[in-house]
């Protein structure tokens, strides 16, 4: 492995480092040697992570050797604390560490209980605060088996010798039956390098909870462009009137418990847990009085009638709490009582209907943030109160506005799932926002913990002067690195007008103009036809992206883009996002396509830390400047704060300059997705004429600025980008083509005959979509048909294919929800499997015939959400995939199959060994419904050759009802919740345990008012003797 000496430190690198990497590592070593802070910017694709790890660990090896030679016992060598924003970024860093020669050093990674808990009961809890208290109670009582095994298993060779990321540690914990969360905390004591999300460092509460030792250690913030925001968030909080009301309600519930015990009621006598000795009735009366006074003080605040809210200085929060006799000196006592109450409510709430201390937990967090200093002094209080004076940098603001009432289904107001007479709902509430506008508040607190050095690094920190001025901590060592690429590897163009000559400007005034939307769509369409591989399109916000999507689908632009590049839209949930990314990679490597298009938002998941190297991302289009919402109270107050500081201190950013920087940094982060290594190439297209302003050009990353060209006419831009890709593909080495895409995330759904896999659909924002079971040749011919149908506006891409989950046939003797749930789940790989050329009414196994046979594919509007493919035929290498409904009766049900017959004329498309009818397109361009196999005759042959007719009986309606309910439940719950639901239903069938069944249903459906109907509708599946009891339960716990 090559070795280079930098600042007197020999650094081993996996390959011969480039000059920019040597410069970067030299600055890192300078920071740790001198014990000074550094802020280092190096463009994405220059190997920052690898440089950080190799340079710091090379220095650490020398320090450890020096420490060992001097036989020092009192002082230990420093540790490297490596932090990034997300766990996925940390996993990437650990993967890089495994490539180095420093992988022998001891490594630890910290995560939350939500990510690492393996206890079967605690891990099911959705609320994080409740999960924490459930865990702490079991640990304290020594009743958690997994925690009790930590000491016995901590010397396992895999833990001490190997490098485990978070997922590896959790898997190993399950295998060896120990707690990964507490094992990670134990491993960090002896670790040389510790990985963690950087909110664990910036948030004092998290820092204390994870027992993070900072004295004398090196702290690295990778992807540090988000540090400012995280610092502000760590010192900010919102609390509502309903939170205070809930606190009163929770304390009252415990007080009633005391009263029941004192009166010797039957309820108390049956309570085996009783009440703890940690608090008494006097504590509860005092606490309730505090909350009542605070509620009274909040309700007395006068607010303007226009709904704009009122703003006060940060000191107002002290005054408000003081009206309820809550002062810094009582902080510790109040927090102790709150903690004991929360733990009691958490551990004694066996039923999901009972309170679990959510309100008390929120109030506890408020006190910890407002009275953040462990040793709170009058001087500190005055320091915050005097925040408007010239010499003070810390600025807090209290903004109070009307609390929006939550709505019940049907438009009625809802409050905490209680009847309308509940006092919680009787008043108009307020939202109290306690906002910190100075990131230096958290960063200064961190630097005062005795750290040796703080290193901030990212590809988008410029302008560095303004970045450091806000953090209020000196950074004497700074670096702005150039990129390693050459001029012919990047094309940057500001395109001011579309192909129709209309000006491209996404300002608030223009963004809803149909002419602008059409011109932007035509611009993207034209570029998509000449850009090879992956195309990333970034919008300023989700709302703008949705609006453009709807307009382009109506106009036909969307379908025209998707002919050459299937379109993926960035979802807002983690599960859907992972699926979308997997399918995007698959389409990029599909030789029958020209790549794929991913539409995303600035500051979203796609713009943060994802790798779109080579064909995965050949161009990025930014459609507008992603300014923060200018009327948002927090944005307005942030600008006001900066203006106040600049006026009084004669230094720092103006409010407008900060507003501009917020947009430019988001743009710089988005365009950094394209060029990922020294041989990569790509285009950056800025489609907004405001990008051509001198102010914005100056705020682009330093490596981008020399390449910028401005185009006032669209034609030259198209000419130059075509020539750029032609030259790049000639001059630069091309990555090897992949036959297969990245491995897709799969859900397995097993049948007795066979097992299949399918990547979960990237349907993203499409409300109605369909997924057809077709071969690659079929897809190709369908695409050709689409080219000929100029008026056909449907989106024919992977986004139209929803996940299909197959079900086995249910015997006619047991048409119930229990039987419908007894099958194991499978997902079909529609990209790999072929379609049987024959169908029968029972969808049995039929061997493929060589002759062509028509199979009609019709939209399935309200059908069960799945259909399953096939059975094994002939040899092991031959698979015939056939769609199966729940049973024979289902095939005759219009609700399960779709419309009774296909309406309108449709073109037959012949492909492979069967003919397919093109799915009907809706008016708005969507392909509606799941595509199911529909027999062309009501009289067919079963697999054993016996001729039968479709049965029409009372079972059809019941099966349809079961399937519709399962579909609705499945679409409402995540994977883990649905598994819990399925297990509970099966258990109820076997054991008739009504109480357990209802408890689990409530835990899944009660918290979200939108799911209350699912709770009620389960009555039809209960045994007759349990239905009256269930009706009574519904009337007690659900709003009327």
TrEMBL record:
Residues 934-948 have a biased composition (Polar residues). SUPFAM superfamilies: P-loop containing nucleoside triphosphate hydrolases. SMART domains: DEXDc2, HELICc2. Pfam families: ARCH_RTEL1, DEAD_2, Helicase_C_2, HHD_RTEL1. One of its GO terms (molecular function) is hydrolase activity, acting on acid anhydrides, in phosphorus-containing anhydrides. It is found in: Nucleus. Residues 889-909, 927-957 are annotated as: Disordered. Its main location: nucleus. GO terms for biological process: DNA recombination; DNA repair; DNA replication; negative regulation of DNA recombination; negative regulation of t-circle formation; regulation of double-strand break repair via homologous recombination; telomeric loop disassembly. Residues 7-278 form the Helicase ATP-binding domain. The keyword Hydrolase applies. [4Fe-4S] cluster binds at residues 117, 135, 144, 179. Keywords: 4Fe-4S, ATP-binding, DNA damage, DNA repair, DNA-binding, Helicase, Hydrolase, Iron, Iron-sulfur, Isomerase, Metal-binding, Nucleotide-binding, Nucleus. It catalyses: ATP + H2O = ADP + phosphate + H(+). One of its GO terms (cellular component) is nucleus. Residues 891-905 have a biased composition (Low complexity). Its EC number is 5.6.2.-. A probable ATP-dependent DNA helicase implicated in DNA repair and the maintenance of genomic stability. Acts as an anti-recombinase to counteract toxic recombination and limit crossover during meiosis. Regulates meiotic recombination and crossover homeostasis by physically dissociating strand invasion events and thereby promotes noncrossover repair by meiotic synthesis dependent strand annealing (SDSA) as well as disassembly of D loop recombination intermediates. Belongs to the helicase family. RAD3/XPD subfamily. NCBIfam families: rad3 (TIGR00604). This is Regulator of telomere elongation helicase 1 homolog. It comes from Homarus americanus (American lobster).
């Amino acid at each position: 492995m090559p070795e280079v000496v930098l600042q007197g430190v020999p650094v081993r690198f996996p390959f011969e480092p480039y000059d920019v990497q040597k410069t970067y590592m030299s600055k890192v070593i300078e920071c740790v040697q001198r014990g000074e802070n550094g802020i280092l910017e190096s463009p994405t694709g220059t190997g920052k992570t690898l440089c950080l790890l190799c340079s710091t660990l090379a220095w650490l090896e020398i320090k450890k050797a020096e420490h060992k030679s001097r036989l020092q016992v009192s002082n230990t060598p420093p540790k490297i604390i490596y932090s990034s924003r997300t766990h996925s970024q940390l996993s990437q860093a650990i993967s890089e560490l495994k490539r180095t020669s420093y992988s022998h050093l001891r490594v630890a990674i910290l995560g939350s209980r939500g990510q690492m808990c393996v206890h079967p009961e605690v891990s099911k809890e959705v609320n994080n605060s409740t999960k924490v208290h459930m865990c702490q109670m079991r640990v304290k009582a020594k009743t958690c088996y997994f925690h009790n095994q930590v000491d016995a298993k901590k010397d396992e060779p895999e833990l001490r010798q190997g490098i485990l990321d978070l997922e590896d540690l959790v898997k190993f914990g399950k295998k060896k039956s120990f707690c990964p969360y507490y094992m990670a905390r134990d491993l960090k004591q002896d670790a040389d390098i510790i990985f963690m999300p950087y909110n664990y460092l910036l948030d004092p509460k998290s820092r204390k909870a994870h027992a993070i030792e900072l004295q004398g250690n090196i702290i690295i913030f990778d992807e540090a462009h988000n540090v400012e925001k995280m610092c502000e968030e760590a010192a900010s909080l919102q609390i509502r009137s309903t939170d205070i009301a809930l606190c009163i309600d929770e304390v009252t519930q415990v007080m009633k418990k005391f009263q029941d015990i004192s009166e010797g009621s039957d309820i108390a006598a049956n309570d085996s847990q009783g009440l703890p000795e940690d608090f008494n009735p006097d504590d509860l009366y005092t606490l309730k009085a505090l909350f009542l006074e605070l509620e009274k003080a909040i309700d007395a605040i006068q607010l303007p009638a226009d709904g704009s809210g009122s703003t006060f200085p940060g000191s107002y929060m002290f005054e408000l709490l003081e009206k309820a006799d809550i002062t810094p000196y009582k902080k510790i006592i109040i927090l102790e009582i709150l903690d004991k109450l929360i733990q009691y409510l958490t551990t004694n709430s066996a039923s999901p209907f009972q309170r679990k201390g959510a309100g008390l937990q929120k109030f506890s967090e408020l006190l910890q943030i407002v009275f953040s200093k462990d040793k709170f002094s009058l001087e500190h209080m005055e320091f915050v109160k005097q925040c408007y004076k010239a010499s003070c940098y810390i600025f807090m603001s209290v903004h109070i506005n009307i609390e929006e009432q939550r709505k019940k289904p049907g438009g009625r107001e809802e409050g905490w799932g209680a009847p309308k007479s509940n006092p919680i709902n009787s008043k108009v509430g307020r939202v109290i926002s306690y906002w910190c506008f100075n990131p230096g508040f958290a960063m200064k607190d961190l630097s005062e913990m005795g750290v040796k050095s703080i290193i901030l690094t990212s590809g988008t920190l410029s302008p560095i002067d303004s970045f450091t001025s806000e953090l209020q901590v000196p950074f004497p060592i700074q670096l702005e690195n150039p990129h390693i690429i050459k001029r012919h590897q990047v094309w940057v163009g500001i395109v001011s007008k579309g192909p129709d000559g209309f000006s491209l400007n996404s300002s608030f005034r223009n963004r809803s103009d149909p002419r602008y939307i059409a011109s932007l769509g035509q611009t993207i369409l034209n570029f998509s036809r000449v850009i090879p591989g992956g195309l990333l399109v970034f919008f300023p916000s989700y709302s703008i992206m949705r609006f453009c999507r709807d307009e382009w689908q109506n106009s036909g632009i969307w379908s025209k883009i998707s002919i050459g590049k299937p379109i993926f839209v960035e979802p807002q949930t983690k599960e859907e996002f992972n699926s979308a990314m997997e399918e995007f990679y698959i389409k990029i490597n599909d030789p029958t396509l020209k790549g794929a298009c991913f539409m995303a938002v600035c500051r979203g998941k796609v713009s943060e830390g994802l790798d779109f190297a080579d064909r995965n991302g050949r161009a990025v289009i930014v459609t507008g400047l992603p300014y923060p919402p200018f009327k948002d109270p927090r944005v307005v107050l942030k600008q006001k704060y900066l203006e106040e500081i600049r006026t009084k201190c004669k230094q720092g950013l103006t409010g407008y300059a900060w507003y501009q920087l917020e947009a430019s940094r988001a743009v710089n982060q988005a365009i950094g997705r394209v060029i990922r290594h020294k041989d990569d190439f790509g285009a950056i297209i800025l489609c907004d004429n405001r990008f051509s302003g001198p102010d914005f050009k100056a705020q682009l990353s330093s490596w981008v600025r020399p390449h910028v060209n401005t185009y006032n006419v669209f034609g030259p831009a198209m000419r130059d980008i075509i020539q750029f890709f032609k030259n790049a593909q000639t001059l630069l080495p091309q990555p090897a083509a992949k036959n297969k895409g990245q491995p897709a995330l799969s859900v397995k759904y097993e049948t007795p005959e066979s097992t299949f896999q399918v990547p979960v659909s990237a349907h993203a924002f499409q409300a109605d979509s369909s997924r057809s079971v077709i071969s690659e040749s079929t897809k190709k011919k369908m695409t050709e048909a689409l080219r000929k149908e100029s008026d056909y506006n449907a989106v024919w891409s992977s986004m139209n294919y929803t996940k299909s989950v197959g079900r086995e046939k249910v015997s006619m003797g047991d048409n119930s929800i229990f039987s419908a749930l007894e099958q194991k789940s499978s997902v079909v790989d529609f990209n790999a499997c072929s379609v049987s050329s024959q169908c029968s009414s029972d969808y049995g196994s039929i061997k493929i015939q060589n002759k062509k046979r028509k199979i009609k594919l019709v939209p399935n509007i309200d059908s069960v959400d799945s259909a399953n493919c096939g059975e094994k035929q002939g040899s092991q290498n031959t698979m015939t995939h056939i769609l199966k409904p729940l049973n024979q009766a289902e095939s005759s049900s219009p609700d399960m199959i779709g419309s009774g017959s296909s309406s309108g004329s449709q073109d037959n498309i012949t492909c492979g060994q069967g003919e397919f009818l093109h799915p009907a397109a809706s008016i708005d361009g969507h392909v509606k419904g799941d595509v199911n196999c529909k027999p062309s005759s009501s009289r067919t042959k079963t697999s054993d050759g016996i001729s039968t007719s479709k049965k029409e009986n009372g079972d059809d309606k019941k099966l349809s009802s079961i399937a519709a309910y399962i579909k609705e439940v499945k679409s409402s719950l995540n994977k883990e919740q649905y598994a819990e639901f399925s297990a509970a239903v099966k258990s109820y069938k076997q054991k008739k345990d009504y109480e357990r069944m209802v408890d689990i249903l409530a835990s899944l459906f009660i918290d979200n008012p939108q799911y209350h109907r699912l709770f009620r509708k389960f009555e039809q599946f209960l045994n007759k003797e349990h239905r009256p009891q269930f009706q009574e339960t519904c009337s007690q716990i659900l709003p009327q």
